[in-house]
Specification:
The chain folds into 3 domains: about 190 residues; about 90 residues, Elongation Factor Tu (Ef-tu), domain 3 (Beta Barrel), CATH 2.40.30.10; about 120 residues, Nucleotide-binding domain of ferredoxin-NADP reductase (FNR) module (Rossmann fold), CATH 3.40.50. The protein has 13 helices and 12 strands. Strand 7, helix 9 and strand 8 form a beta-alpha-beta unit. The protein is elongated, with a radius of gyration of 26 Å.
Amino acid sequence: MPAALLALLYLALTCAPLALAALQGLPPRPLRDELATGVALTGLAILLVEFALSGRFRVVSGRIGMDVTMRLHQLLARAASVLILLHPFLYSGPQSLRPGLTPPGAVPLNFDWSGLWPGIVAWLLLGAVMVMALGRDGLYRHETWRALHGIMALVMAGLGVLHATRAGRYSSDPVLWGFWWVLFAIAVLSLVWVYAIKPLMKARRPWRVSSVTRLADRTWELCLDPEGHTGLRYLPGHFAWISIGKPAVSLDENPFSIASAPAEGSRLRFVIKELGDFTNRLGELTPGTRAWVDAPFGSLTLQRHGKAGGVAMIAGGVGIAPMLSHLRQLDADDDPRPRVLFYANRIEEQIACRKELDARSHSGPLRVIHVLSDPPAGWTGETGFVTPDVLTRHLDAEALTRWVFVLCGPPPMLHAVEDALLGLGVPAHNILLEQFSYD
């Protein structure tokens, strides 16, 4: 499904409650009352559709990228939260409870307790979810946060629908009532699919750790082999959610870019840096440990850029993983296009797969430019960061206009390099990037 069609579908779903309310033809109320209701209808619709923007549906993230999907999830959730938290304060107050004092055509609000209490609880839960989100990195393990966030969001959404259908002037209409409960059912099925059905399907395709090899300072290569099946169909640039030594149905999953190439066979290779929890224990994994793979995901692929004049890859640290996948597949395909890899690290000891990269640059159409922000004495490569000056020293005007640029690395680096490329005249549609941190 094209990205434009996804956007239209999203707008149709989130605007549908307003349209269905308008079609009922009820007499208008005071402006503030209508505004409060409209804000609530829109906020609830956005909240329910958010369950499809969880990042685990390839039909969405595969079209616009995981980073865009998750960033939209964050921004739209915040917008829905503001609308829902604000709407009780927009009603025109006591006059709405006294029909004799309201303007012609006005209708008193429904303050029946059976419709009011779900809204109060949902409103308080929403505030709790927002507070928990602010402290999720320092107070909770990621897996704990995922479980709490999903459960609380679903309860909050269900109570919100219950409040709307019991207390709402427009949502009591059978059509809009049915619309709300269908959306809620889809939200429930979304969570069931992600956290129950897919893991059970995944359990039928186990993997085994074949090796764990140290590549560089605090950086490891993890290799997984399929057990009893033919492996995974994927493209260079895809990533996978993997869990090791855990049950198939588990919240202990982590996303990692695939570093192997499809042409290499069924073995999957990952380049992983020690950053805490699971990654700090990589060196302790033993061959034969069972693993589970949910993949492929992502949009950092070259399939829509086959006519690009060349490929420029810009990686920071462990962002080299998808670049290795691309380089390995391009060489396996005997792709004649020129390619350049800008590989940025802090120190020389962090350079991963250096011998392989040197060998590929000597035997093929690849140039490798190492960039160190803290170089050792006698370093002859680039220093500092990947700046416009660094880029223009190694790329000519034709490359800047006709090549495709693939970016992966820490978010500050990605944003700086993207701005640099746009400033140098690189068309936005020729820049591919994806990140795993969305703050």
